[in-house]
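Query form — protein MFS transporter

QUESTION: What is the three-dimensional structure of this chain?
INPUT:
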Amino acid sequence: MTTLSPDTRPNPPEVISNPAAASPTGTALPDGQAPRRAPRGYAPSLAGANFGVYLALLTPVLVSMAFKVQHLTSTDSEATSSLGIVLGVGALFALVANPLVGRLSDRTTSRWGMRRPWILGGALVGLGAFALIGAASSVWIVLVGWCLAQTAMNALLAAANATLPDQVPAASRGKVSGIIGITTPVGILAGSFLMNFVSGDFLRFVVPSLIATVLAVVFALRLKDRVLTEKPAQRFTVGQFFGSFVFDPRKHPDFGWTWLTKFLIFFGYAGVATYLPYYLQDDFGLSEDKAISTILVANVASMAGMMISSPLGGILSDRIGKRRPFVAAAGVVMVVGLVILAFAPNIGTLVLAEAVIGFGAGSFLSVDLALATEVLPNPDDTAKDLGVLNIANALPQSIAPAIAPALLAVGNAIGLGGYTFWYLTGAVVALAGAVLVYRIKGVQ
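ANSWER: The structure tokens for MFS transporter are given below.
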């Protein structure tokens, strides 16, 4: 029997005998005080878990799923509509899983902690789901596998990110959020890189998810998780189930405007990115292999922009004490990048556009989570409320593929070009998000 070394043995959990006595930040400390500093190694291991999730989920969204669906369909129009169905329905499962698991983890009384069981369970179920997708022989099996993968990986993500207010004081969350923000472009870049060296649909889905599983296990083992020793007094009712996905914007307007801003900017960033492989093939005449290598170059440029703006945005927002200007500026920069992308005459301009979008997205992702933790309505429902906010991440990935075929057709019908119209739509939506961030009054 294998035993864990002192460096890999799970950290002892924080025990909370009375959930109501926990501090507002979620950490059980004397006199309800917030933690003074994040636990040693917490930020890198949380970043690793986030990287794994984004590697496993965004590689299919941005690269491999389009080609998997294309291999199972006979025409371009069938591939486009089938991809929209798979990604759209799958994102709905993500929409449900994230806030629901967030709320359930707030109530979990496992001796392993509140968050750890969901992290480990999500990673293992996700690995099996990605294997199913890779081996699928029909679009319908892909759809089932993708729905399961979205559910599992978003459960992992909800539980993992709920540990941020558990473990980190508010004044330091911008820096930690900035580190986490980097994991999105790194995950995208790593996935694009892997796709150039991994052949076959099965390995294209299994290898990223296997990496995600390993990193999630490492984070879970290192996490000094909270433990509830008493079950919450209030039962988890049907009303609470549906309440996991809603909030009252009249009572919590800042939370509502934060949600809407996040949704609009994420539509411009993530929602419109799904069809880049088809854009490269249809408008630039690239083969599948050439499209994959071009996506890698584009993602390198995007990551370069993010690497500059993401840590800088988080650190500066902490130092200045302001969040909204960084979110607004990020949205405007992304709008510029999307407009360039819409009218790109060649691959070089397309790569430049991705760099500009990445620069804007880096600033947004670095500050977004820190801003969100400052407008949460209820400190006793931290994970649930963060899960509701994460709906704003998932919902654009459902709506965008669902409306894409219609918008592409409109663009072609008016003579502007399907993909040009598609990316301009994303620019307009992101601009609205940049403007509306100033409706948030409780955060500077």
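ADDITIONAL NOTE: Residues 1-33 have pLDDT under 50 and may be disordered.
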